[in-house]
From TrEMBL:
Pathway: Amino-acid biosynthesis; L-methionine biosynthesis via de novo pathway; L-homoserine from L-aspartate: step 1/3; Amino-acid biosynthesis; L-lysine biosynthesis via DAP pathway; (S)-tetrahydrodipicolinate from L-aspartate: step 1/4; Amino-acid biosynthesis; L-threonine biosynthesis; L-threonine from L-aspartate: step 1/5. It is an enzyme of class 2 (transferase). GO terms for molecular function: aspartate kinase activity. Transmembrane segments: none annotated. It comes from the Bacteria. Keywords: Amino-acid biosynthesis, ATP-binding, Kinase, Nucleotide-binding, Transferase. Its EC number is 2.7.2.4. The keyword Secreted does not apply. This is Aspartokinase. It comes from Flagellimonas marina. It catalyses: L-aspartate + ATP = 4-phospho-L-aspartate + ADP. NCBIfam families: asp_kinases (TIGR00657).
Length: 416
């Protein structure tokens, strides 16, 4: 069995859905499990519904209506018959969202987030599965929440691999075309959990691992894995082949094409990962697999924006030693701040952090009791794998470099 993953951009409107059909027809869809994200920017729109729930309940109806109208436009373009059963199925999903927001008693943002935002994937797959059946591509719709079982760490759930393997083995017919959701799982109480933003790639890898799939293909709006994000760099080059190790390094540093967790289960069973264009499905794309390095060998640029640089020093000029560092890292963990770069000397400690869970301010209040703290917000962290002098100078030019760190293969710059 093969596993395909289509992201939000590939199903953003009715024409995009028809293009997914074209891709399946060109490359084949027998014995295939298709993992699909929420349509377009639906996840962002559902996040606004969650924000309305916590900040201004009077705005929930308007925020949710935007999502309803968006999907209604896609439905009317794909299904000419207004009495087609799909309309009732989609209406029921929105009624479930409204029902949850009415009866929910939990004050926990992360829990509410997962229960609401997860409907984006349920909507997209319900619509696309029905459309495929309508045009003659018979398929089975699967609720991935019955397959991927997790803990209760909402918004960043960890996989229960043993239970997930058992559920996948029991419920996936590998001889059919199957349609399911990315990003989602469920806990022991069958509440929806999510695997982190961009977690649909990870979903595909989890399912491929459990199915012993022959390959995973991620369909993107780019020709494959590039040596830089074309949204941030003018000149880019297609990487034709990447080893698992190299791809994991790129993902760790923040390469946006591949989710950081995606490669680990694939590597364990040596399942190749293809990254290809849904606009040109017959093109070569990029293959990630067993091997050495990258082809062609070239500097690879990665940028993570909206980061935070903290510079800590002791108030009494004493050394920052293991006890201090252990305490600091516990604070990072407790406030859900991801560490992207570390640099320290005898009396100072610099760290670049990702503040995606907004834990920075309460943590700063604690740190300032024991350390002198300098905080630079809204900085960018640039990473160059396989750097050369020309590549480094191209990033330094015209920028204020706050921290520079070099290793044998990698250089990192924090710039303002």
């Amino acid at each position: 069995m093969r596993v395909f993953k289509f992201g939000g951009a590939s199903v953003k409107d009715a024409d995009a859905v028809r293009n997914v059909v074209r891709v399946l027809q060109e490359v084949g869809y027998e014995d295939t499990l298709v993992v699909i994200s929420a349509m377009g920017k639906t996840t962002n729109a559902m996040e606004k519904v969650v924000e309305s729930y916590f900040k201004d309940k009077s705005s929930i109806t308007g925020a949710l209506q935007e999502v309803i109208d968006y999907h209604a436009g896609i439905l009317s373009n794909l299904f000419e018959n207004p009495k087609h059963p799909i309309y009732d199925r989609v209406k029921l999903l929105f009624e479930e969202v409204k029902g949850f927001l009415t009866w929910n008693k939990s004050p926990k943002y992360a829990f509410v987030y997962d229960q609401v935002v997860g409907y984006g994937e349920l909507l997209s797959t319900t619509i696309i599965s029905s459309y495929l059946n309508e045009i003659g591509l018979s398929n089975t719709w699967l609720d991935v929440r019955t397959l991927i079982k997790t803990d209760t760490n909402y918004r960043d759930a960890q996989i229960n691999w043993e239970r997930t393997q058992a559920e996948v083995t029991a419920h996936v017919d590998m001889s059919k075309l199957n349609i399911t959701q990315g990003f989602l799982g469920s806990d022991d109480n069958n509440f929806t959990t999510t695997l982190g933003r961009e977690g649909s790639d990870y979903s595909a890898a989890i399912l491929a691992y459990c199915l012993n799939a022959e390959s995973v293909t991620i369909w993107k709006d780019v020709p494959g894995v590039l040596n830089a994000d074309p949204r941030n760099f003018k000149e880019t080059l297609l990487l034709e082949q990447i080893s698992y190790r190299e791809a994991i390094e790129l993902a760790f540093y923040g390469a946006s094409v591949i989710h950081p967790k995606t490669l680990q289960p694939l590597q364990r069973k040596e399942i190749p990962l293809h990254v290809k264009s849904f606009l040109n499905p017959k093109d070569m794309g990029t293959t990630v697999g067993k091997g050495v390095g990258i082809v062609p060998k070239t500097p690879c640029f990665i940028v993570k924006k909206n980061q935070v640089l903290l510079k800590l020093s002791s108030l009494d000029f004493s050394f920052i030693v293991e006890d201090n560092i252990s305490e600091i890292f516990k604070l990072f963990h407790d406030h859900r701040l991801k560490v992207d770069l570390i640099q320290n000397s005898a009396i100072s400690f610099s760290v670049c952090l990702d503040n995606k869970f907004n834990g920075l301010q309460p943590m700063l209040d604690v740190l300032k009791r024991k350390f002198k703290v300098v905080c630079h917000e809204d900085v960018s962290l640039y990473t160059i794998r396989h750097f050369d002098d020309t590549a480094v100078k191209s990033l330094q030019n015209g920028k204020s470099v706050l921290v520079e760190q070099r290793g044998k293969e990698t250089v990192q710059l924090v710039v303002k």
